[in-house]
Amino acid sequence: MNHTYLEIHKQPITWEKTLSHLQQKAKTNQFLNKKYDEIIFTGCGSSYNLSLTASYLWQAINQERTRGVPASEIFLFPEGVFLPNQQYLLFGISRSGETSETIKALQTSEKENTTIDTVGITCEDNSTLIHYSKYQVITSEAHEESVVMTQSFSTMLLSLLFLALKKKENLPRALFELPSLLNELLPTGERIVQSLANDFSFEKFIFLGSGPFYGIAWEGSLKLKEMSLTPTETFHFLEFRHGPKSIVDEKTLIIALTSEKAFDLEKVVLSEMISLGATILNLGKKPLNLDKSKIVEIVFENPSLNDFFTPILDVVFLQLLGYFRACNKGLNPDKPKNLTKVVKLN
Questions:
Q1: Per CATH, which fold does 178-328 belong to?
Q2: What is the pLDDT of residues 164-193, one digit of tens each?
Q3: Where do the SIS domain residues begin and end (predicted)?
Q4: What is the distance of C-alpha 330 from the center of its chain?
Q5: Is 120:102 a contact under the CB 8 Å cutoff?
Q6: Which ranges in the chain belong to alpha helices (H)?
Q7: What is the largest CA-CA distance in the chain?
Q8: Domain locations along the chain
């Protein structure tokens, strides 16, 4: 068994250890007690996708203005990110803590603007990112050997969700149920995803997600692309109807990350895509109750879950889709083409 598969399957244990660690260290996160004009989440690749979801969750939970920004934008075009005389909290996210653009983003921001507090989020102790961060959140339980981010992504996202909820002084039971829920869902969900990955009649893969699911949709798209060299596209649900739906036919698999909040409209979109020939993989709390011959579903039935928690569960099955598609194409997920574990600028 290779590293990628083992690390995908370790996530329930890793989440449980991380939540315990976060509870022990909760009082050390002094930035939770400060007021900021805006909170910026930044990273590269998967960590940028993570930033998009973390930004939504933090703003929705705490009613504070947030944004997810690619790390390179912060030092190349800072005038489009920061305003003078504003107090910022900047989260720099990097699995290795050595991603050059993220380090440079924190380094230049803190050097040139004294109104920015920085938080480094990484899976590695003593990494360079930590040395350029005023505050640190280290999820060493999620250390990975694989090139492609899997448990590191979900665990750092879980940590940011914990911090957002902790700031509001509200740690609901559902947060701590996530490890056991994933354990329950994995056997059946894995079989469903593996069956779809085996189906080579699909030539077009479209990921749809809105709100907190948009960054997760991008991450699922990236996992399939990185591991299996499959071209993919990503859209908000309703945006897909404005032109992009023209590509839909019987060779299209739409991976739908449905929400509670917008489910009725998302269902309308998916019904239209089925009429155009698409097959749907629905991940969400509710079944679609549409043409069963065109729908495969992984439904999270736990009543305590909501749109804050299901994105973290979604991403695991998207990782498995990329993994099994790669294996079925004769590719090694541990050695994805053209990729390295750490990306550094020359």
A1: Rossmann fold (3.40.50)
A2: 999 988 889 999 999 999 999 999 999 999
A3: 28-175, 192-336
A4: 26
A5: no
A6: 3-9, 11-25, 46-62, 71-76, 100-112, 128-131, 151-167, 173-197, 214-228, 263-275, 310-328
A7: 58
A8: 3-171, 178-328
